[in-house]
Amino acid sequence: MEFSTKRGNLLIQWLVGVGDLTVLNLLLHAVYDGLGAAYTEGIAGHLRDITLLFNFCYFFALYFVPLKVHASVVFIDKIVQRSALLITFFTFFFTTCLMFLNVGEGLGVFIAVFYAVAATVFTCWRVLARILIKMFRSRGRGLTKVVIIGAGKNGLELYAMMKEEEAYGFKVLGFFDDNRALKPLLPNYLGATDEVNRFVLTNDVDEIYCTLPGTQDEKIRQMLNFAENKMIRFYIVPEFYRNVKKSFVMDMMGSIPLLSVRREPLQASYNRAIKRAFDIVFSLAVLISLYPLMYIVLGIMIKISSPGPILFRQKRTGLYGHDFECFKFRTMKVNEEAHTAQAVKNDPRKTRLGDFLRKTNLDEFPQFVNVLKGDMSVVGPRPHMLKHTEEYSASIDKYMVRHLVKPGVTGWAQVTGYRGETRTLEQMEGRVRRDVWYIENWSFFLDLKIIAVTVINMFRGERNAY
Q1: Domain ranges for the chain
Q2: Distance between the two ends of the chain, CA-based, in angstroms?
Q3: Residue 120 near residue 126 (C-beta atoms within 8 A)
Q4: Could you give the residue ranges of the DSSP H alpha helices within 36-107?
Q5: Phi and psi dihedrals of 416, rounded to 5?
Q6: Cβ of 147: how many Cβ atoms within 10 Å?
Q7: R_g over Cα of the chain
Q8: Distance in angstroms (rounded) separating the CA atoms of residues 32 and 111
Q9: Residue 367 near residue 328, CB atoms below 8 Å
Q10: From CA 387, how far away is CA 398, in angstroms rounded?
Q11: Which residues neighbour 336 within 8 Å (Cβ) at sequence distance 6 or greater?
């Protein structure tokens, strides 16, 4: 068997694991030597035993946060997230063991420094490992050899995805389909479906991807049994994928499989707890430190710029479609269209101060009161006025899905170019697609990334903010 198949992927996993242990052990001794006796006297006489315990804790943490760096498709932000999570679990287990062994006394500074350094260096190592793996695969090494059964739309889309980037690690040998008339139209036609078994055995195929319709279930069943008997992984692309292009989540009701069309990390109570805890801490920090001074200074300037209240209050659509009162610093003159017409470029209703507040996102700061109340989150789909919810829910498919989570002060759509006025239905559809993507791919680190980009945009100014 060539290196480029199952053994190659297994070897990559082992090399990454060895790299993990090497990096962590070097960091342990670097921090130990760097801090000196004042912060390490508790382990000075037991360094060898503690090093063994240290390595054991890595394998224990790895059970909860397994390796994913070698996967065919994995994105950098997920690697960063899983690396930080692994270090957190690992440091917690290591600290707990030291405390039970009565070695942890006086080592608070040592643990804190190690955690801070390890979280940074280990994450960089994992990202580097992923880059090296991609470079290795892009040169035609370590590839997974696959065949696709069925040359319909699903099969062709799957082929295009696998060939999109060589670093994914797929080597598509070709298609099998009973319609021989497709031969001149396909990149590599290998034969009819009854020729799959012979080809797979003679060409050492690693994985089979079946895109045949469910009407050919007997043929699919036979090929599945063959693949399992020959220890070849067999994947089925569901026929209705063309109509519901989602990342399905499978659950079981007894022996009956159930497919959910959407993965929602925030359905998990512990994820909601993490997000809510962060919302409370972050909003309190803003409201205590920045907001009082902003309210006084900007309030005076708003009053001078035009008559009316300092805060603009508007009913908007929130979680599960429930209305709530959203707060903003007033950026327009008091007008009758405030609750029905969105701001446009060179809008005559805006004040000069209001234009500045919008471009810098400063008008949104009162919404941290909404966050603290629980009506909003720091990050989430932006809440729309009730009139827009009524209009767009009738014309945009899956528009209401964006209300499965709390609306946010900032969001994924806003930091990816969909902030401000939506002149066309296509622009709103683009915003909705990004909102739904956020719901399906939420992570705490994604929230931090969105906040960081939002802060950068505040200083840089946003072209579409008006």
Answers
A1: 6-138, 144-245, 269-460
A2: 61
A3: no
A4: 37-40, 47-64, 76-100
A5: -115, 30
A6: 22
A7: 28
A8: 10
A9: yes
A10: 17
A11: none
Superfamily of chain region 144-245: NAD(P)-binding Rossmann-like Domain (3.40.50.720)
User: Hey, how many other C-beta atoms are within 10 angstroms of the C-beta on 394?
Assistant: 8
What distance in Å separates the CA atoms of residue 452 and residue 430, rounded to the nearest whole number?
A: 22
413-450 tens-digit pLDDT:
989 887 766 667 788 888 998 999 999 889 888 999 99
Q: Is residue 52 within 8 Å of residue 154, measured between CB atoms?
A: no
**321 vs 403: CA distance, rounded Å:** 6
Dist CA 406 CA 429 (whole Å): 19
Residue 140: partners with Cβ closer than 8 Å, 6 or more residues away: 4, 166, 171
- Percent of the chain as helix, strand, coil, to the nearest 5: 60, 10, 30
CA 409 to chain centre: 19
Q: Give yes or no for a contact between 208 and 232, defined as CB atoms under 8 angstroms apart.
A: yes
Model confidence band, residue 233 (pLDDT cutoffs 50, 70, 90): confident
- Whether 9 and 144 have beta carbons less than 8 Å apart is answered as yes
Residue 16, CA distances (Å) to 71, 116, 457 in order = 12, 21, 36
Q: Are 50 and 103 in contact (CB under 8 A)?
A: yes
Contact between 379 and 350 (Cβ < 8 Å):
no
Q: Which two tokens stand for residue 356?
A: 């500045």
Tens digit of each residue's pLDDT (9 = 90 or more) over 130-150? 888 888 777 767 678 899 999
Q: What are phi and psi of 291, to 5 degrees?
A: -65, -45
